[in-house]
Design a protein that fits this description.
The complex is a heterodimer of chains A (596) and B (194). Chain A is mostly helical and 596 residues long. In chain A, 61% of the residues lie in helices and 1% in strands. In chain A, the strands form 2 sheets. Chain A has a two-stranded antiparallel ribbon with strand order 1-2. A two-stranded antiparallel sheet of chain A has the order 3-4. Chain A is globular, with a radius of gyration of 24 Å. Chain B is mostly helical. The chains are: A mainly alpha (596), B mainly alpha (194). At the A-B interface, helix 7, helix 8 and helix 9 of A face helix 1 and helix 4 of B. The complex binds protoporphyrin IX containing FE and copper (II) ion. Copper (II) ion binds next to helix 9 of chain A. The site of protoporphyrin IX containing FE has 23 residues of chain A, from helix 9, helix 11, helix 12, helix 13 and helix 14.
């Protein structure tokens, strides 16, 4: 690394009067409070993975209560304490905490930090040939503010009354009156303000980096698809998150200062009129929340599509099919995602005109999604595919995202959404997109860029076990949810819907099947964890470009030193020039000059 | 390699990093206050009655002129740098800082007046809106003052070593400051006059 740093400094091509000294940084500055985008990226990724694991554990506990209601939780039941699970039997209140925090943690502390903070930070500057992000200090700040948000969320489990328990959506007025005088929901709001601030700093940094720091010759239509996906994602974070920040502040005022932004007049809870000034509007919260949270679902999925695009091009040894179309589709998707939010609110009694508007925009937004999926699928056509571990995960993304997306269509039309809303069908829908969809793509990305970050490859046998085990289990987890939802099983019930007539028989039995599959799924993550750590030390050492890839990050040393590139990179061609007729090898990297 | 375009504009975009960054940040601020103003509109149009004349219009008006004045001194602080007059620049920046301080002192008297009369945020939706929106705006003022204090204190050294970058920073601070001023120019009529 040090060798690289000094030669990188010697080779820098910009004549500024201020020469940056490459002095040795101490341990703290180098690994903890680092300003290097690669270190920050890895910090984000590892923290994100830890939170994914934590959120998954919460779900494993919840699944016990649904599969075997009112039976003591084995192994850990007695550790949970009297306020959560007396005698090892889960209290409904604790189930609600787990549910709210599972959603919050998975989305805001797991997937987004890994996909944007992790992959975005590590890969984007390398792919555009930049020495770092545009604002390294801001980058460090954004990680640490995210970290603070994570700590706030985590700590909230241990305050009196426990963590937030009004769902990851925190609908008012429930969230305002829940846990009166206790901290849970208040800490959730404070945590969200931290997380939003962090992603705001991050998104400014990403956009400036991509717009300003592209290497010589890297014109817009030569950008790797992953960079486009990250650019659109950054715009979504930049513009969609502030309204939720506003909403969070308003809800905080409602809880702490006793205002009534979301508290209607005449609210009676448990036969007691609520003592507030009233006049507030609970639906306002839903609008502000979904104005963020619909774009947020694209924040979850766009980076995943970007990763899949990179890996498919690399392993089919062919250019991506319809690169330009992909770029336009992703930009259009980003724009449209701002005007579909109320499809989450068909049940709120909105008028038919408004509902027709949002149904129409929802149908329109599925078009670019289908275009992207189709283009990626067509890229496979006629290729001799290399079934590497990253490719396995990337290939699985396609049908999984397809199932998730297609099941979204009936939800986007009010007549079919009304019976399906708040059932397990919705849970099935979005988990297909986010879990076997996005999270598989993130695994693909980890296997794919691991050699760049460490200089070593991850083990393929362990990778295959991880893939096939996860693939089978995760489908057994989520496929039955469509059946349960169509049977009318509601979401958010701590006993899995035990008491409802429509759930008797198959729907309830499926809870057991799902539980079993979830717990088995966790076992199949063990090979990944072993692989991840063992490969850092014992993984096979590989060259700087082990996958014979074309994009710029593969021209840097593995791992890249401070400043990334040994010489200033210059781009000579588009991102996916694989199997160019007449070329000597089957890949023509962006960084290799045209032979005269 | 060094991070490029910290000082000079990138030829094809015509921007230096900091300027693009501050514009993007302001875009997100527009969304933040946009959401707050939308909430205000929804709440007000849905309200049975809306109090009028509860705020001290004269103090509000004074504060409006104070902020507009501070925007002018802010521009002058930047322009003097461009004219290479560092002494004048400091004078104007101190002026901006002081005006911002006076704004906050006025705000304090307003708040204190309401509180002594028992008019807390929980009293009515109008006061809830008033405290929240002016409070968030006040936090933005404080944020701006912190940045100015830095640029007057330890940050000022940069003028000697990297003058162009320093004036870029002043320019960015100025853009932010004008935005904060602009928000108040919306807040004042909405809360005090309508
Ligand atoms: C492409 C076509 C898509 C359509 C037409 C669609 C439509 C919908 C609709 C109408 C709902 C509301 C259902 C209800 O609550 O009754 C919904 C829920 C949801 N969707 Fe999608 N969706 C699509 C893609 C996605 C993607 C790509 C993601 C994420 C990466 C996603 C994530 C979610 C989530 C998280 C929820 C549930 C939120 C909650 O209520 O807790 N959807 N979808
Ligand atoms: Cu949506």
């Amino acid at each position: 690394m040090d060798k690289v740093a000094t030669s990188g400094a010697a080779a820098h091509g910009h004549a500024h009067e201020h020469t940056h000294e490459h002095h040795e940084l101490g341990f703290w500055r180098k690994y903890v409070f680092s300003q290097d985008h690669k270190v920050i990226g890895i910090q984000y990724a590892v923290t994100g993975l830890v939170f994914l694991f934590f959120g998954f554990t919460l779900m494993m506990i919840m699944r016990w209560s649904m599969a075997y209601p009112i039976r003591p939780i084995p192994l850990i039941g007695s550790l949970l304490g009297q306020t959560r699970a007396p005698g090892g039997i889960m209290l409904p209140e604790f189930y609600n905490q787990l549910g709210a925090m599972h959603g919050t943690i998975m989305v805001f502390l797991g997937v987004v930090p890994l996909a944007v903070g992790g992959f975005g930070n590590f890969v984007v500057p390398l792919q555009i040939g930049a020495p770092d992000m545009a604002f390294p200090k801001l980058n460090m700040a954004s990680y640490w503010v995210y970290f603070l948000g994570g700590v706030t969320m985590f700590v909230s489990f241990f305050v009196p009354g426990g963590a937030a328990m009004s769902g990851w959506t925190s609908y008012a007025p429930l969230s305002v009156i829940a846990q009166p005088g206790q901290l849970g929901q208040t800490l959730w709001l404070v945590g969200m303000v931290f997380l939003i601030t962090s992603s705001l700093l991050g998104s400014v940094n990403f956009i400036v980096t991509i717009v300003q720091l592209r290497a010589k010759g890297l014109s817009w239509m030569r950008l790797p698809f992953f960079v486009w996906a990250q650019l659109v994602t950054a715009f979504l974070l930049l513009l969609a998150f502030p309204p939720l920040e506003a909403a969070g502040v308003l809800q905080l005022m409602d809880r702490v200062a006793g205002t009534s932004f979301f508290m209607p007049s005449g609210l009676v809870v448990g036969n007691v009129p609520v003592q507030v000034s009233g006049g507030g509007n609970p639906l306002m919260w839903q609008h502000l929340f979904w104005f963020l949270a619909h774009p947020e679902v694209y924040v979850l999925v766009l980076p995943a599509m970007g990763i899949v695009g990179e890996i498919i091009a690399n392993n089919t040894r062919k250019p991506l099919w319809g690169y330009r179309t992909l770029v336009y589709a992703v930009a259009f998707l980003g724009f449209m995602s701002f005007i579909v939010w109320a499809h989450h609110m068909f049940m709120t009694g909105m008028g038919t005109t408004i509902s027709a508007f949002f149904q129409t925009t929802t149908m329109i937004i599925s078009i670019p999604s289908v275009i992207i999926l189709t283009a990626l699928l067509l890229s496979l056509w006629g290729a001799s595919i290399r079934f590497t571990t990253p490719m396995l995960f990337a290939l699985a993304f396609l049908p999984m995202f397809a199932i998730g997306g297609l099941t979204g269509l009936p939800l986007g039309l009010a007549p079919s959404d009304i019976p399906l809303h708040d059932t397990y069908y919705v849970i099935g829908h979005f988990h297909y997109v986010v879990a076997p969809g996005t999270i598989f793509a993130l695994f693909a990305g980890i296997y794919y860029w691991f050699p760049k970050a460490t200089g070593r490859k991850m083990n393929d046998v362990l990778g295959a076990i991880h893939f096939w085990g996860s693939f089978v289990c995760i489908n057994i987890v989520f496929m039955p949810m469509f059946i349960q939802g169509l049977a009318g099983m509601n979401r958010r019930m701590y006993d899995g819907g035990l008491l409802y007539a429509n759930n008797q028989g198959l729907p309830l039995q499926l809870n057991v099947v799902i539980g079993m599959a979830v717990w088995t799924l966790s076992l199949f993550q063990i090979p990944f964890i072993i692989n991840f750590f063992a490969s850092m030390k014992w993984g096979k050492k590989v060259s700087d470009n082990p996958w014979d890839a074309t994009t710029l990050e593969w021209s840097a040393p593995s791992p890249p030193g401070h400043g990334n590139f040994l010489t200033e990179p210059v781009v000579y061609r588009g991102p996916y020039e694989y199997s160019v007729p007449g070329a000597a090898k089957d890949f023509s990297p962006q960084f290799e000059p045209e032979r005269a | 390699m060094e991070i490029p375009y910290i000082v000079d504009a990138r030829p094809d975009t015509g921007l230096h990093n900091c300027k693009l960054g501050i514009w993007l940040f302001l875009a997100s601020e527009v969304m933040l206050f946009g959401a707050l103003f939308s909430t205000y509109i929804i709440l007000r149009t849905g309200a049975v009655e809306w109090p009028f004349g509860e705020l001290n219009v004269w103090l509000g008006m004074a504060n409006t002129f104070i902020l507009i004045g501070s925007s002018v001194t802010m521009v002058m602080a930047w322009a003097s740098l461009k004219l290479n007059d560092f002494g004048k620049h400091r004078l104007y920046l101190i002026g901006t800082f002081v005006l911002a301080g006076i704004f906050l002192v006025n705000k304090y008297f307003e708040y204190a007046d309401h509180v002594t009369r028992g008019e807390l945020p929980s009293h009515s939706t109008f006061l809830a809106v008033y405290y929240t929106m002016t409070g968030l705006h006040g936090l933005h003022i404080v944020g701006g003052m912190v940045v100015m204090a830095y640029l007057l204190g330890p940050g000022a050294k940069m003028w000697k070593t990297r003058p162009d970058q320093f004036s870029n920073r002043i320019e960015a601070t100025g853009l932010y400051w004008h935005f904060v001023d602009l928000v108040w120019i919306f807040l004042f009529p909405v809360l005090y006059l309508l």
